[in-house]
Structure formats: C-alpha cells, structure tokens
Amino acid sequence: MPHRFVISRALFLLPALCILAALLASPAAWGNEQPYGVVVRCFDGDTVRLQDGRVVRLTGIDTPEVRHGDSPAQYYAAEAKALLERLVLQKTVRLRAVGEGRDHYQRMLAVLELEDGTNVNRRMLEEGAAFAYRHKKHPAHFTDDMLQAQREALQAQRGFWQKILALPAATESYVGNKNSWRFFPAHSKEGQRIKAKNQQALQGLAQAFTQGFSPARVTSFWPTLPH
Fold first, then answer.
1. Extents of the domains making up the chain
2. Among 120, 177, 180, 191, who pairs with 184 as Cys (CB 3.0-4.6 Å)?
3. 132: how many CB neighbours lie within 10 A of its CB?
4. In 10 A of CB 137, how many CB atoms?
C-alpha cells in the first residue's frame, strides 16, 4: 500500500514537473519580456520593430540587404521586405526563441509565428526571399526544417533563386567552413585559412546552399541595384 501511494503521488506530480521544466527551458534569454507583440515596421526582409519598441531579428534566415547610406540595395531586397510586410505588418506575432537570445546589436532573435501558426521565418525561405543562416546554438530539428524549406525553393527556383543560380559565380568553386557554416571563394585568403578538418569543397552555389552553408561577407557575388 505505501508503495502504491508513492507511485500515485509521483504520477500526480509528473505533469506539474513537466510544466515547470518547459517554463525553465522557454526563452529565458529575454528575461520577463512578453512573447507576443504587434509589428509596426519592417526594416528589411528579416528585421522588424514591435509596437512596444523592441527590435526583432528573424533567426535562422538572411535576406538581401536594402540600401544603407552609400551602399546600394541588393537584388531582391525590396521584394523580400514587401513579402515580410504582407505577412506581419500590423499583426500580432508570437516570438519563439530557438537557441539564441540576442545578437551583438542587442536585437531579439526569434521565430515569428502568426496567429494561425505560420512560421514566418520558414515562409520567407519557402518563397525564395531568404536563405538559411544556421547557427551552432540552433536545435538540429529546427536547422533541418529550415534547410528543407530552402532546398525546395532552390529546386523550384522560386524568388531570387532563378537569377542567383544563373550568375557566372554560380559555377565557381567555394570552400565551406563546417565550424561556422559559412562559405568562401575557394582561392580567397579567408578560405585558405580554414582548418583542414573543417574544410568542405563546394562546386557552385547550388551545392553550397543545398548543404546548408551561407555566404561569408567576403563572398560578394550578390547583384546590387543602381542607385
């Protein structure tokens, strides 16, 4: 009888313990900040401002750069921004952390989810308006899901992929860093500095993106637009 009581009590407490564990594993990196917000501005295709002033960077993706000062806009930057605006502007979104808290600009890093459950970050990849930007702190299931969305868009040549994969740079040789998951021109000094154990030879942009590498800043093949 005492043993049965102990087991019953443990089973009673189990749901409460599971809830507590979930709370402790939730996005604590943001402190007591609300996991919801209304989007009032899209700076580009991967960064938004909420009504309460918080700035959120959509984690796991990167989009073409809009014009900054004297730096011209990159190809498809306007389209990526317009898509994000259609998805989230003036809407309530849920912020979900997937391993990171903030970037070095102190922007919140999160997945944005709409009220119907749509994963906005993934949607940007599905439409060919963003490429995957993986991070070591991201859970494996999240990275796999995002890369699957990218591969499908790349294969269908949606959004910017048709033009990007037709560039002369698309057939050049690159080297990927399996530690940072960035790729570089094969003969660049940055690429040659990668430790041998971390090097991954990549023949062309399609292979680099399919395998989950994203371009390092020195890999400047992306077309820009006239001022």
1. 28-155, 165-227
2. 191
3. 27
4. 12
Q: What is the mean pLDDT of each run of 10 residues along the chain (227 residues)?
A: 45 44 46 89 98 97 94 96 98 92 91 97 98 94 97 98 98 97 95 96 98 93 89
CB neighbour class for 13 (10 Å; exposed up to 12, middle 13-18, buried from 19): exposed
Nearest Cα neighbor of 120 from 144, 140, 91, 141 is 91
How much is the pLDDT for 126?
98
DSSP for residue 68: B
CB of 202 closer than 8 Å to CB of 208: yes
Q: Which residues 6+ apart lie within 8 Å of 115 measured at CB?
A: 91, 92, 94
Say yes or no: domain 28-155 is CATH 2.40.50.90: yes
Rounded to whole angstroms, the Cα distance separating 81 from 75 reads 12
